[in-house]
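User: Hello, can you help with two protein structures?

Assistant: Certainly.
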Amino acid sequence: MVRRTSRPRTTAAAGLDDLLESTARISANIEQVIEGKAEPIRLAMVVLLAEGHLLIEDVPGVGKTLLAKGLARSIDCSVRRIQFTPDLLPSDVTGVSVYNQESRDFEFKPGAVFANLVVGDEINRASPKTQSALLEAMEERQVTVDGITYVLEAPFMVIATQNPIEMEGTYPLPEAQRDRFTARVSMGYPSASAELEMLETHGGADPLDDLEPVADALEVRKLIEVVRGIHVSDDVRRYVVDLATATRESPDLRLGASPRATLQLLRAGRAQAALEGRDYVLPDDIQELAGPVLAHRLLPTAEAQVSRRSPEAVVADLVARVPLADAAATRRR
């Protein structure tokens, strides 16, 4: 039996009450437009607090865009939507320098990426050249145009949707692009009761029309600072590295988790712990997030594909086999 020893209340712990109240308010607001999807909403909150980006991948009509827009409208901050199409240009995303005849100089016209929350609909419909326009912004939170670098204001989050089964007119996301998404979530079909509720509430009007912000960018920045202070023991760090190493050595995978994936798994673990009301991360947090954070980055071998062994199944198997860190030490430190 693990005994929890008392320890001084940290700065992160002092801000957890405010974090729990704020995130519960935002989640409840999103649930006004999406019924019965508590887990995807929670994962979206984890990614937001972890300063990451979210890829929502599922079949048409299950609420992918609704989740993205619900989160965007729940926070009073700058929001831009990009409808990805084959004719979309990189300059539409990042911006372009335009010559001003009055001033006789070039003026920078910011693109759609200059916002706190960027909603990218059907991201795999844009060409690889346009998709790559997001790489610098998502990783470095800056945009370079004509040799000049523009810093993106915090918080900055990209929420992208894509349809995994429709191949006509689409361009699969390259590995470098997928690796920049902190987590991937699937909405899934609603339960019968949730679908009945949807028919009742969505049948007459769009619920997004009445959705009001319940937080702002400043509040989100404060919540992120709280998450940054969540304690991570050496044992948990070692466990994260062990999981990532196991993906690189798995015979079922030809591409394992990158060091970026390791870092984002740790950040997501901090956010998960905060949402549980803890100021320290447990191996349980890492195990719960391993699938959403790692699976979309992995490439199965030809043999694994033939045997229909998905990356999600491989990650679940590795989580079951990789030894856990010392949980008792994790709680005491």
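That covers the first. Now for the second protein you mentioned:
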Amino acid sequence: MGKTAVITGITGQDGSYLAELLLDKGYRVVGVTRRTSTQVNERINHLEGKLELVSADLLDQSSLTTVIRDTRPDEVYNLAAQSFVPASWAQPVLTGEFTALGVTRVLEAIRSVDPGIRMYQASSSEMFGLVREVPQRESTPFHPRSPYGVAKVYGHWITVNYRESYDLFAVSGILFNHESERRGLEFVTRKITDGVARIKLGLAAELRLGNLDAQRDWGFAGDYVRAMWLMLQQPAPQDYVIATGRTHAVRDFVRLAFECVDLRWEPYVVVDPRFVRPAEVDLLIGDPAKAKAQLGWEPETTFEQLVERMVRADLERLSRTVTV
């Protein structure tokens, strides 16, 4: 009999890639979704019939406990969060409820039902914020620069606290930026590739962006979910930085995306102050040495391949809407 895994946030980018990975490994996959009037399942529609979906909410302790008690998973992957950084300034309290206290509720559900369940918590490079050292590693102090980053720091440390207090196998993956064609359109990378495709197809004339000088360590989401799984297969629970070890400015992403469609970027890109964060995170670059040494994990997709993959996918999607 294969293992059972529960994934919160299964309808998101990472959740969909992780579900594919676990299904390929013979897992029974149970996805947790919020009960809403409209279900947004486009990222997992192709997995219909292969996984189970149940309703629960990170704001509701009893619903989470019920899911854990009814499914009796071997592993829980907590990927659900209010994960759009700019929105965390507009909704800081809600971000804290989901992204911080929601982690505690998942841990409590596991502790009360079966402390032997292994849990993965999705931490974030945004926790480093105003970075204290370059590159950032597992021992680098946190200095978050957004309500989202602050909430992620709480989620990270409460996971450590439950591991040390209750002997849970609970780990955090400190994942640096990871993207794909399944990324939401509100995120800057997808905003860029969607905008480039629209300009190429004559559907738009410009692309408005914020800080082009911000630097990020970008990888492919499909590579990063493999690291999540590997963390829960280890003999002892530890936290890991998952990154490429390479950094690029937003400007580099823009330039490569336009090059994919044989256009220069300068005539089309407008810097709009509305999209500049109140407190910017200028430079994130991770040191994945521990993950490489202990997990045997390395990214397989290059930055250049990632950008091209995303642009091609948006071109194909939008081409279907253009009448000849």
